[in-house]
Amino acid sequence: MSRLWTSEEAARATGGTATGAWEATGVSIDTRTLAPGDLFVALAAARDGHEFVAQALEAGACAAMVSHVPDGVDPAKCLLVDAVLPALERLGQAARARTEARVIAITGSVGKTTAKEMLKQALSGQGKVHAAVASYNNHWGVPLTLARMPADTDFAVIEIGMSNPGEIAPLARMARPHVAMITTIAPAHLEAFGVIEGIAAEKASIFEGLEPGGVAIVPLDVETSGILIDTARTHAAEVVTFGEAEGADLRLTDVILSDESTVMRLATAEGARLAKLSVSGRHYASNAVGVLCAVAAAGADPTQAAMMLSHWQPVEGRGQRERIVLSQTDDIAIELIDDAFNANPASLAAGLEVLAAITPARGGRRIAVLGDMLELGEGAEAMHADVAELPSMEAVDVVHTCGPLMEHLHTALPGAKRGAHEATARELCHALPRRLRPGDVVLVKGSKGSKVSVVVDALRKLGQSLGDQG
């Protein structure tokens, strides 16, 4: 690994004091994933990171960023700062200042992580790409991503999220993007905002961080596109729109779904174009169109990016597909769609559309296993019940549910589709296996707090996973 920070550089960036000399090849906040050579940042979360400094140094950390030297720790192995989180922010800002990378920032109610991973793949053949790990998109995730950015990065992809008003703009100003993209606006975190327009205004505040001459990428299909465009015009030198709506600068005119691919027809200023993804999903097509806009705005080649994008696959918990073999002869299996990381009405509708487009093996069925969609505020019960009316539900054979909110969907379903309902995901783990049969395609989706990931784990334990099929 190449050098990322010297003790002198890190001290100067943070305003801290380093009494010893060291070189960091990475930055970590978690001893479980720390690599030798990392600078360990002792953030306070569920527990105070200072409790883990000795453990981090034993695991090979070159030093630790601390606000006080823990008992028994060598001061020469410490970067002493006034407060750890503000110092991490300053380290991230210094990393951003020293690079000539083209920076792309992404937010949206749905699809942030997917679009970030797509951009990482799309740009991978055109330079050195740095992107956030997992969904590191909050008040510590953004500065951590920036602090980890090598100086010789060509393209940086920064994911920015929020749970409450006022969170996006400060992070956007920290990232200072040349391109800022909004994937879509949907009723996620509605509990904190009351109305969808409030969510749109918060998401649009990402444009406040744009560099001079910056480009705003805006979805034209959403009802709140006017709010997004008005804000974008205030802060961006150029506004580029995408989506299926008439008038979009990059328009998605047709989406053709099959079991394992999505073909997109695009209307551009230069004429009609085709693009393909090696995964099924209309929502993936929408994200891909926005990504191609961002690629062009960042000065990269969209044709080459589209070719690279055709190899993209979803990550774990975001629609990843895998085969779970239930016999030694490989002839009895189910297919799992792991979409258990998050859920709101828009993303759940997209997940069900993917399930509906898949043809099960002989004798198999389309099965949905759904946990509560959280933080929807007033009307959450009706939003859950309304899932029964989605067009894609016609193709779903059985729906198993868990949680107090999903009970409203369970009640709204016709009897033939109504599967098991349990109070918790863990209880559903016990009821589900005996209700499955060979050939079934099983979608598992719910908000992270619904803990439906335990259902994914239980299904994987039924047999040997043969990896991504999708």
From TrEMBL:
<comment type="function">
    <text>Involved in cell wall formation. Catalyzes the final step in the synthesis of UDP-N-acetylmuramoyl-pentapeptide, the precursor of murein.</text>
</comment>
<dbReference type="InterPro" id="IPR013221">
    <property type="entry name" value="Mur_ligase_cen"/>
</dbReference>
<comment type="pathway">
    <text>Cell wall biogenesis; peptidoglycan biosynthesis.</text>
</comment>
<keyword id="KW-0547">Nucleotide-binding</keyword>
<keyword id="KW-0067">ATP-binding</keyword>
<feature type="domain" description="Mur ligase central">
    <location>
        <begin position="106"/>
        <end position="294"/>
    </location>
</feature>
<dbReference type="Pfam" id="PF08245">
    <property type="entry name" value="Mur_ligase_M"/>
</dbReference>
<dbReference type="InterPro" id="IPR004101">
    <property type="entry name" value="Mur_ligase_C"/>
</dbReference>
<keyword id="KW-0131">Cell cycle</keyword>
<dbReference type="GO" id="GO:0009252">
    <property type="term" value="P:peptidoglycan biosynthetic process"/>
</dbReference>
<dbReference type="GO" id="GO:0008360">
    <property type="term" value="P:regulation of cell shape"/>
</dbReference>
<comment type="similarity">
    <text>Belongs to the MurCDEF family. MurF subfamily.</text>
</comment>
<dbReference type="GO" id="GO:0005737">
    <property type="term" value="C:cytoplasm"/>
</dbReference>
<feature type="binding site">
    <location>
        <begin position="108"/>
        <end position="114"/>
    </location>
    <ligand>
        <name>ATP</name>
    </ligand>
</feature>
<protein>
    <recommendedName>
        <fullName>UDP-N-acetylmuramoyl-tripeptide--D-alanyl-D-alanine ligase</fullName>
        <ecNumber>6.3.2.10</ecNumber>
    </recommendedName>
</protein>
<keyword id="KW-0436">Ligase</keyword>
<dbReference type="GO" id="GO:0047480">
    <property type="term" value="F:UDP-N-acetylmuramoyl-tripeptide-D-alanyl-D-alanine ligase activity"/>
</dbReference>
<dbReference type="GO" id="GO:0051301">
    <property type="term" value="P:cell division"/>
</dbReference>
<dbReference type="GO" id="GO:0005524">
    <property type="term" value="F:ATP binding"/>
</dbReference>
<dbReference type="InterPro" id="IPR051046">
    <property type="entry name" value="MurCDEF_CellWall_CoF430Synth"/>
</dbReference>
<keyword id="KW-0573">Peptidoglycan synthesis</keyword>
<dbReference type="GO" id="GO:0071555">
    <property type="term" value="P:cell wall organization"/>
</dbReference>
<keyword id="KW-0963">Cytoplasm</keyword>
<keyword id="KW-0133">Cell shape</keyword>
<feature type="domain" description="Mur ligase C-terminal">
    <location>
        <begin position="334"/>
        <end position="447"/>
    </location>
</feature>
<dbReference type="Pfam" id="PF02875">
    <property type="entry name" value="Mur_ligase_C"/>
</dbReference>
<dbReference type="InterPro" id="IPR005863">
    <property type="entry name" value="UDP-N-AcMur_synth"/>
</dbReference>
<keyword id="KW-0132">Cell division</keyword>
<keyword id="KW-0961">Cell wall biogenesis/degradation</keyword>
